């Protein structure tokens, strides 16, 4: 799905608001309006892309107009009662946790930072005396954690986490003197108070919008203000270095308010000096970046206007217009596949030869890939230690060599990627058309992949991220990592964000801008493909016996399963045979 952002200006100016609140509290309190809009059926901006089936998935947005009753400590309460009362008071967003702070000593009540982390657990938790006097150990069955930037990380392994608290008596009453920053919420409470929101940043070429999904909480109508504050703070850690913001470093809101006027224009007053130092082009890029973010969350915003010292800034004329930002870059409808050991194309109904394509049968091809232009192809050869690149009218060229290579993946810029599956942490990228010839391979050693058997590496449709499926000692890991580049040259993969999943997947690919499909493979057993998303509940598709390969265009209903001899499409969560005598069909990417 692709959309273009159009910006507009308005002569209206914002009214001045005085007084500032704590940044995190303002951000937390501001986000619930988005949830209410979703609940009441308000729509986001329309977007356009390739024709496909609609997705039934719904965001994890929940009603937040729920009154969580807060209780102050009762006189004579035991240490365990104080601890449990403090944990239960972690829902006090609306008053900056005033009840929760009453369970702390005066000093800790002042220094305690509830925004530091949100720990999400299921079922109950235990409280037991610690190893030191007046200390207690709390054990939680953790589901996930959310950091101060709103980045959610699923729990690893058993998911058990312990917290230690120390108690002292204040005027004869037990209070908590030492406790980690942050709050602890049950899974149900978390899903009531928190919802996902996508901030959009640019890829380094300023072509694509890259979603940065954050989990934010609150119950106020100051949503536009909160979104702007979050965007100005920059991308999430795993995207830092992989994406860019059009907003200059150090720029901030002039006041703690982003009003939206009657025409739907968000009036954004920014600190004057850094704003006026930007060029017209940069301001237009800032405007496009913020507008698509606001319109994806609010259907009331029709434009963005920047002001410096309450004055409109020059946004240029028609001749200064920038290229539109592409959201959820669509893949072409035609796939590359194998038929009788030769590369062919498949449009969903018809299998066709590729004009001018030389025979590759002698190279025993597998796992074919196709560039977004449809002019370059690649495949794994033989036992899987070599990847060849080929174009019509040319002979295949050995592009990548390593042990147990993952299926090749093309980035939107035409670069070809793969990873070694031998635990070395080696990731290789090469430009197959560098001035008409094969470029020099870039070999990266990724520290967090050392010791992992990588089975799948797929570049996102915006070219800034990679999906990595790996395993070590029988434990499967599904990760999304940012790609740090110098110009077009990839340099490293950032520390990843892990996705919670079921089973032991070995294949993975992108389904949308923030969703992926993963699956195990088996020639004889029934297997279920699982669609994972940074902002949606996981979806397990109907089981199918003999899945050996998957492909996907956009959306969960456009995920296709393939056995050794048949190609399936998903219709109302039921698999239907679409083609036979076709192997490993793959969309561009």
Fill in the keyword field for this structure:
40 strands, 5-stranded antiparallel β-sheet, mainly beta, 9 helices, 589 residues, 13% helix, 7-stranded mixed β-sheet
Textual characterization of the structure:
This protein is mostly beta strands and 589 residues long.
Uncertain ranges: 1-65
Number of DSSP strand runs: 40
Strand content: 35-45%
User: DSSP helix count?
Assistant: 9
- Intertermini distance: 15 Å
Helix content: 10-25%
Mean pLDDT: 87
Class from helix and strand fractions = mainly beta
What is the makeup of the main sheet?
7 strands, mixed
User: What is the global morphology?
Assistant: globular
Summarize the structure.
The chain is mainly beta and 589 residues long. It has nine helices and 40 strands.
Helix and strand arrangement:
Elements: H1 23-30, H2 32-39, H3 79-88, H4 98-101, H5 106-111, E1 117-121, E2 126-129, E3 135-147, E4 152-154, E5 160-170, E6 173-178, E7 183-186, H6 187-193, E8 194-202, E9 208-217, H7 223-232, E10 265-269, H8 272-276, H9 280-297, E11 303-308, E12 311-312, E13 326-327, E14 335-339, E15 342-346, E16 351-353, E17 365-370, E18 377-381, E19 386-390, E20 397-401, E21 409-410, E22 416-419, E23 426-430, E24 442-445, E25 453-459, E26 465-472, E27 475-486, E28 489-493, E29 497-499, E30 507-510, E31 515-519, E32 526-527, E33 530-533, E34 539-540, E35 544-545, E36 549-552, E37 559-562, E38 566-571, E39 574-580, E40 583-586
Parallel strand pairs: 1-7, 9-13, 10-11
Antiparallel strand pairs: 1-3, 2-3, 3-4, 3-5, 5-6, 8-9, 11-12, 14-15, 14-40, 15-16, 17-18, 18-19, 19-20, 21-22, 22-23, 23-24, 25-26, 26-27, 27-28, 27-29, 30-31, 31-33, 32-35, 33-34, 36-37, 37-38, 38-39
């Amino acid at each position: 799905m692709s959309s273009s952002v159009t910006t507009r200006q308005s002569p209206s100016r914002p009214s001045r608001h005085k007084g500032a609140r704590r940044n995190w509290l303002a951000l937390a309190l501001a986000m619930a309006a988005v949830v209410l809009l979703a609940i009441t059926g308000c729509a986001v901006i329309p977007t356009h892309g390739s024709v496909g089936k609609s997705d039934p998935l719904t965001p994890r947005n929940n009603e937040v107009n729920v009154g969580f009753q807060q209780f102050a400590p009762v006189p004579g309460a035991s240490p365990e009662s104080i601890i449990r009362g403090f944990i239960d008071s972690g829902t006090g967003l609306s008053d900056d946790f005033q009840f929760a702070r009453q369970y702390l000593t005066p000093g800790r009540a002042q220094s305690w930072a509830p925004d530091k982390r949100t720990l999400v657990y299921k079922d109950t938790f235990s409280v037991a005396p610690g190893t030191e006097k007046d200390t207690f150990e709390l054990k939680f069955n953790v589901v996930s954690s959310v950091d101060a930037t709103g980045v959610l990380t699923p729990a690893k392994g058993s998911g058990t986490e312990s917290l230690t608290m120390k108690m002292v008596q204040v005027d004869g009453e037990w209070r908590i003197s030492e406790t980690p920053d942050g709050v602890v919420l049950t899974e149900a409470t978390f899903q009531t108070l928190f919802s996902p929101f996508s901030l959009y940043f640019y890829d380094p070429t300023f072509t694509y919008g890259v979603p940065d999904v954050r989990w934010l909480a609150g119950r106020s109508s100051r949503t536009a203000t909160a979104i702007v504050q979050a965007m100005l703070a920059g991308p999430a850690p795993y995207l830092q270095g992989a994406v860019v913001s059009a907003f200059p470093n150090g720029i901030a809101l002039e006041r703690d308010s982003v009003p939206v006027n009657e025409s739907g224009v968000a009036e954004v007053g920014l600190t004057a000096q850094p704003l006026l130092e930007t060029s017209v082009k940069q301001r237009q890029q800032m405007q496009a970046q913020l507008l698509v973010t606001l319109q994806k969350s609010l259907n009331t915003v029709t434009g963005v206007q920047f002001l410096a010292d309450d004055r409109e800034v020059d946004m240029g004329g028609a001749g200064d217009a920038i290229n539109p930002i592409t959201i959820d870059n669509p893949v072409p409808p035609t796939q590359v596949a194998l038929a009788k050991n030769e590369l062919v194309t498949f449009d969903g109904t018809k299998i066709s030869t590729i004009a001018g394509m030389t025979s590759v049968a002698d190279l025993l091809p597998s796992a074919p890939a196709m560039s977004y232009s449809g002019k370059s192809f690649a495949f794994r050869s033989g036992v899987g230690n070599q990847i060849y690149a080929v174009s019509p009218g040319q002979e295949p060229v050995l592009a990548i060599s390593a042990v147990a290579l993952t299926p090749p993946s093309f980035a939107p810029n035409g670069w070809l990627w793969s990873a070694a599956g031998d635990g070395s942490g080696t990731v290789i990228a090469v430009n197959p058309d560098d001035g008409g010839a094969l470029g020099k391979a870039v070999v990266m050693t990724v520290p967090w992949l050392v010791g992992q058997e990588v089975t799948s590496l797929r570049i996102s449709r915006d070219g800034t991220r990679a999906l990595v499926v790996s395993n070590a000692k029988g434990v499967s890991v599904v990760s999304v990592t940012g790609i740090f580049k110098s110009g077009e040259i990839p340099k490293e993969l950032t520390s990843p964000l892990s996705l919670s999943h079921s089973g032991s997947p070995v294949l993975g690919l992108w389904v949308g801008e923030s969703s992926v499909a993963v699956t195990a493979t088996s020639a004889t057993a029934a297997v279920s493909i699982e669609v994972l998303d940074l902002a949606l509940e996981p979806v397990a598709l109907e089981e199918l016996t003999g899945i050996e390969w998957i492909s996907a265009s956009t959306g969960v209903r456009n995920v296709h399963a393939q056995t050794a001899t048949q190609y399936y499409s998903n219709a109302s969560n039921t698999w239907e045979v679409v083609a036979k005598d076709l192997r490993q069909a793959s969309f561009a990417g």
